[in-house]
Every structure is written in C-alpha cells, then in structure tokens.
C-alpha cells in the first residue's frame, strides 16, 4: 500500500481541521471551526473541553489495543507463511502417495495426491514450471534487443540451466539448485563485477539438497533476505468465471502505458517513457496476449500472459490504476488470461504474485495454490 501523502489534524474541541502535505510541510486544506465569536476565535460551549479531554485520554488505551491487534495479525501472517512453506516441503519430500509417473519423466498434467493436492512439489514439476519463467525472460530480452535498437544495455547469459540477467540497474541469477553448483561460482563472479542491485533465487529441493547452494552463498557473504513464490492451477474444463469488462489491448504500447500508470510511484518519472518503449517491444510477440480492463469505458488496468510451448500459460505483468483498485478488476484480468490459456490448449497456469498481498489473495480466489517457495539471496552490504 502506498504511504499517505497528507497528515490530517483535527482539534477535538472545536472541530477545526488542517491537511498538511508531508513532503512540502505546507497546509493544503483548512476547515474553520464550526462556531466562532465576533473576532473569529473558536467559540466553545460549556463541557466541550471536558468532553475533548476525555476522548484524548482514551486514545492512548485504544492505540495500545490497536497495536496489540496489529502485532497479533502480523504473527498470524507469519504463522500462515510458515505453514504454507511446511506443506510444500512435505510434498516435495514425498509426503502422501501419488499416481504412477510414466518412464521418462512427469506426466503431461499434474497427478493429484491422495490428499487432493496437485503434485506441484515434485522435482520434475518444479524444474518444468521454473523453466517457463526463464524462457519468458529470454524471449523478452530477444525482442527488446531486436526492436529497441540499443543492444548491449542489457544482456542475458545461460550458465548450464541457470539464467544470468545483467543490466545497468539490477542483476539477477535465477533457477539455482544443487545440480548447477559447477556453474554457480563463475556466475557469482560475473555478477560481482557489475554495478546495480543484485540477487539470486534458489529453488527448494528434496531432502534439503539446496543446503549445498546455501553453503556456497554464505561462504561468499550472501544472505537469505526473503522469499518469492510460484503459484499454479490446472486448467480443467470448468472453474473460470467470465470477465465482462476485459478486452484485448489495442497494441503492446497501450499495455506499456497502462502498466506504467498502474505502477505509479514505484517508477522514476524520468524512466517512464523508456520503460514504455521497452515493454512495448518485450510483449510484442505472438506468444504474448495482452488485455485491458475497463470501468465505464475507461481503461482501468492491464495484464499480460505468455503461452509457453510446453502447454503452460504464465500470468506475467499486470497492474490496476490506483483510482480503480478495490473493485475486483485484478480478478477479471486473471480470468481473462486463464481463458486465453485454455483456448490456446494449455493445461496449466502459473503466476508469481507477491506473498501476503492482495495479488496473492486474488490468485487464490481464482483457483491458484502455492506450488513452491523460492529463496531470495542478496550480496553482502558494501563497507
């Protein structure tokens, strides 16, 4: 949630009100007292001060109660997250029986366990789903290089099954697992020669094998700094509601402009035009489908999806304009992309909403569940 840009101050006795812009420290709105005397000073009736004093004295107790409630909610969210990761790790280690898998690898679609959960936790499925995300990143890079005419500003390298993304502002190493240890340290050496923010994502593995990766990163001073996650659902014959307010985007530029408007304060103004051009190039291919959701005929948000040749649709970037949030528009955008994936013959949908956000809630309400968490590491702080 974006921070408030104004502080509102109200006198508890006379109801005089001010609104102060926190960035400029200027008064931007003022409401005079309801009752004033001939000189314009607030006019109070007997008992106003006593009533105001009583309200103010009680605020401290109420504030303590609200703080306790907030801390309890935060603890509940932490417990929920621990429970989700525990459930995924249990499935990844083979908890519960599964249907037989044909020789040569996983079946085309996930087989449910006895508990009713899809087999997202198997090593083959985790690698398969993660590979879709990596292919999308590679394709976006190819299109950007081909269409924007500025090769060299960003680069993408394959190190075995690892994907190394390098640009002037951030650098990422994705898809790390114990089977790629021979490529890990050369990739880290390459990253540490670059400027900008850096991070590494590590996949969970059976029997805690990712501890070998953790050991290499820890020896070099990298620290576990959080989690991302990948969510998934099966595209069966039913279960996708209609999205009546969603239409195809006119072109990839409309998508880019709406995405930047939806991200708002998260993007530096000087970078908006360049980002629109970049996004218009990256999402211009036939494998990408772009959508716009409208409110009373006005564009209110946008979303994209990638139809992977492996039969998996990746719900990629999306945003709803700030003034239209809270109207379930994101759920409509999810439904439109699920329907597009099914129409293209996909059997599975994946998405990467941030954990414990409204985006995760929307995905879950549209049938997604946590497939697996992803560990995120950052380098040591400079001295």
Task: Describe the fold and architecture.
With 383 residues, the chain is α+β, with helices and mostly antiparallel strands. The protein has helices at residues 48-92, 123-148, 181-191, 211-219, 252-263, 272-282, 329-343, 358-365; strands spanning 6-10, 17-21, 27-31, 154-159, 162-167, 170-176, 197-202, 223-234, 246-248, 288-295, 298-308, 312-320, 348-351, 369-378. The strands form two sheets. It has an eleven-stranded mixed sheet, with helices on both faces. A three-stranded antiparallel sheet has the order 1-2-3, with no helix packed on it. Strand 6, helix 3 and strand 7 form a beta-alpha-beta unit. It is globular and about 80 Å long. The protein starts with 5 loop residues before the first strand and ends in a 5-residue tail after the last strand.
What order do the helices and strands follow? EEEHHEEEHEHEEHHEEEHEHE
Q: Can you tell me the residue ranges where pLDDT is under 50 for at least 5 consecutive residues?
A: 91-118
Shape: globular
Q: What level of helicity do the residues show?
A: 25-40%
Tally of extended strands?
Answer: 14
Distance between the termini: 32 Å
**Cα-based radius of gyration, to the nearest Å:** 26 Å
Content-based structural category: alpha+beta
């Amino acid at each position: 949630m974006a921070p408030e840009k104004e502080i509102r101050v109200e006198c508890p006795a006379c109801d005089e009100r001010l609104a102060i812009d926190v960035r400029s420290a200027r008064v931007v709105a003022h409401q005079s007292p309801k009752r004033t005397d001939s000189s314009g000073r607030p006019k109070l009736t007997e008992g106003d001060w006593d009533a105001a004093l009583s309200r103010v004295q009680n605020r401290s107790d109420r504030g303590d109660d609200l703080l306790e409630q907030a801390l309890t909610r935060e603890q509940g969210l932490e417990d929920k997250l621990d429970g989700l990761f525990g459930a995924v790790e249990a499935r990844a280690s083979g908890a519960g029986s599964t249907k037989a898998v044909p020789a040569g690898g996983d079946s085309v679609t996930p087989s449910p366990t006895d508990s009713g959960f899809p087999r997202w936790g198997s090593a083959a499925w985790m690698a398969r789903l993660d590979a879709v995300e990596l292919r999308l990143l590679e394709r976006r890079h190819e299109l950007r290089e081909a269409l924007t005419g500025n090769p060299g500003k960003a680069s993408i390298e394959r190190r075995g099954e690892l994907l190394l993304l390098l640009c002037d502002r951030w650098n990422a190493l994705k898809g790390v697992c114990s089977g790629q240890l021979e490529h890990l340290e050369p990739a880290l050496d390459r990253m540490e020669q670059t400027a900008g923010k850096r991070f590494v994502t590590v996949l969970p593995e059976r029997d805690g094998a990712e501890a070998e990766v953790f050991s290499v990163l820890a020896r070099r001073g990298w620290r576990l700094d959080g989690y991302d996650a990948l969510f998934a659902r099966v595209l069966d014959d039913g279960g996708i509601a209609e999205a009546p307010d969603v239409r195809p985007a006119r072109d990839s530029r409309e998508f880019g402009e709406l995405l930047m408007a939806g991200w708002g304060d998260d993007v530096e103004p000087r970078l908006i035009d360049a980002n629109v051009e970049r996004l218009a190039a990256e999402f211009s291919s036939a494998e990408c489908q772009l959508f716009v959701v409208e409110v009373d005929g006005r564009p209110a948000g946008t979303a994209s999806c990638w139809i992977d040749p492996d039969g998996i649709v990746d719900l990629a970037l999306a945003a709803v304009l700030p003034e239209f949030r809270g109207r379930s528009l994101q759920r409509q955008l999810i439904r439109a992309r699920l329907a597009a994936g099914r129409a293209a013959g996909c059997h599975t949908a994946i998405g990467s909403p941030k954990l414990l956000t409204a985006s995760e809630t929307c995905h879950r309400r549209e049938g997604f569940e946590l497939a697996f968490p992803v560990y995120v590491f950052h380098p040591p702080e400079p001295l």
